[in-house]
């Protein structure tokens, strides 16, 4: 009995820290897509083509992916509270600078600094939750942590559209100031200072090689999506990225303290979640970029109305969250990922059928259905990722997962721009002028990538992750 107050206090403190991390995760992901509906207005401010502003999204997301791998080392070296509050401060200050810029180059530079702050905010808190959570409670914990990341890309376009339509795109970034200051104060007050720190060596070579590989590949994809890029230039960056990636892979396998630990990839469920799951994230991440542009450039809507329509996706996400656990328990990971993966790809293909004269209720129905299936697929992938990872490998698995997730989100935005360029080429006109028909083809290309994500799921055992989902396989399933 005497221990109860102490236990209650620890529980309350832990819950508050989880909420802080979830809020930081929301801010981090919100700023990845909130500018999607503001791209036309921002393009006019900077004097560039709207599609070229995709670099404002991808540079931020790429920086997250490059710097997330060192977040664990930084937390061990300098303490969780110090790293978390410093990251919030950098993120908030860079947000203000983003709102003050007047050119694409300065804006992109500010977004990179903002991404450095964002990269340090979430992974440490996520790892703490993963280490403290029993396997049978993992589904609830993962859902709580990933929910902000799922909601933010959907909330971002309508919120950005509202701000852009009735004020200025600059206020998208200025609003981070009160949120960031509140987060800094709460984090410093409630996150306990570390009693000691771990001085493990920093894998500088691994960090440089991984960063070079990710940056070169992402920039190559960005170039492929731009209207004035030469193919030879983009292919050169792809080659550099491939060489750096190969060197990074060989290096991290040999070093004793790698910046990215690849051991978790030996776990089948984790490997599937990283491979097929990455293709799914790429396809889904193209949607927040393509939809607002199609509604505004193709359909002639204003930014606010365009953003409001995307709330239908959020409604589908919200409704599916209420039954995700029951669906997983009834059908298991393998069946859900296969069947729902096909439905998710079909929902993307259905967006290619939308036209300027399509009734609003049909548009809403298509987006709502897409929200249902993408929420279920995300929930299954994110939970399965850590279902079988041993506790001692959880740190490396969390860092690797966070890095890959951010890379694939950035690749999704680049994929949307590339798909538009390919569509314009197929229709025989320049990419400077984008038509509704181009968006229709682009969504079909994105849907094909989404469909490809299910193929490695066929290799999963029917009982995969059953100890997490609670699914009981039949004797027939178990022998397949």
UniProtKB/TrEMBL annotation:
It is found in: Cell membrane. Its main location: membrane. PROSITE patterns: MFS (PS50850). Keywords: Cell membrane, Membrane, Transmembrane, Transmembrane helix, Transport. GO terms for cellular component: plasma membrane. PANTHER family: MAJOR FACILITATOR SUPERFAMILY (PTHR23501), TRANSPORT PROTEIN HSRA-RELATED (PTHR23501:SF1). This is Putative transport protein HsrA.
């Amino acid at each position: 009995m005497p221990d109860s107050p102490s236990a209650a206090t620890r529980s309350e403190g832990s819950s508050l820290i989880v909420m802080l991390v979830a809020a930081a995760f929301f801010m981090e992901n919100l700023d990845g897509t909130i500018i999607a509906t503001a791209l036309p207005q921002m393009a006019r401010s900077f004097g560039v083509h709207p599609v070229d502003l995709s670099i404002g999204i991808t540079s931020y997301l790429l920086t997250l992916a490059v710097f997330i791998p060192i977040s664990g080392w930084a937390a061990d070296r300098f303490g969780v509270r110090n790293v978390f509050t410093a990251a919030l401060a950098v993120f908030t200050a860079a947000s203000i600078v983003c709102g003050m810029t007047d050119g694409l180059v300065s804006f992109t530079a500010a977004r990179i600094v903002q991404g450095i702050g964002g990269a340090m905010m979430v992974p440490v808190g996520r790892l703490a939750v993963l280490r403290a959570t029993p396997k049978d409670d993992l589904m609830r914990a993962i859902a709580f942590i990933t929910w902000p990341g799922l909601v933010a890309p959907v909330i971002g376009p309508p919120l950005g559209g509202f701000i852009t339509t009735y004020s200025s795109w600059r206020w998208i970034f200025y609003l981070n100031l009160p949120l960031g200051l509140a987060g800094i104060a709460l984090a410093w007050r409630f996150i306990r200072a570390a009693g000691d720190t771990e001085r493990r060596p920093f894998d500088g070579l691994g960090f440089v090689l991984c960063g070079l590989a990710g940056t070169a590949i992402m920039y190559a994809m960005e170039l492929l999506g731009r209207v004035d890029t030469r193919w030879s230039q983009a292919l050169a960056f792809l080659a550099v990225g491939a060489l750096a990636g190969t060197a990074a892979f060989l290096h991290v396998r040999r070093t004793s303290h790698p910046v990215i630990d690849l051991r978790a990839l030996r776990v089948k469920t984790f490997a599937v979640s990283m491979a097929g799951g990455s293709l799914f994230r790429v396809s889904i991440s193209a949607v927040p970029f393509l939809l607002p542009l199609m509604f505004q450039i193709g359909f002639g809507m204003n930014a606010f109305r365009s953003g409001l329509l995307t709330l239908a996706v959020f409604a589908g996400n919200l409704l599916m969250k209420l039954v995700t656990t029951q669906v997983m328990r009834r059908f298991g990971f393998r069946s859900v990922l296969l069947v729902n993966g096909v439905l998710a790809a079909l929902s993307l293909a259905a967006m290619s059928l939308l036209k300027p004269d399509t009734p609003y209720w049909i548009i809403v129905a298509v987006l709502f259905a897409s929200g249902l299936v993408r929420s279920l697929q995300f929930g299954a992938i994110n939970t399965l990722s850590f279902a079988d990872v041993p506790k001692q490998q959880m740190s490396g698995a969390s860092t690797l997962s966070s890095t890959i997730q951010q890379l694939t989100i950035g690749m999704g935005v680049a994929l949307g721009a590339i798909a538009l360029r390919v569509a314009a080429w197929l229709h025989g006109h320049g990419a400077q002028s984008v038509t509704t028909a181009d968006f229709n083809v682009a969504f079909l290309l994105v849907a094909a990538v989404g469909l490809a994500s299910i193929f490695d799921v066929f290799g999963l055992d029917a009982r995969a992750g059953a100890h997490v989902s609670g699914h009981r396989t039949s004797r027939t399933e178990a022998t397949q």
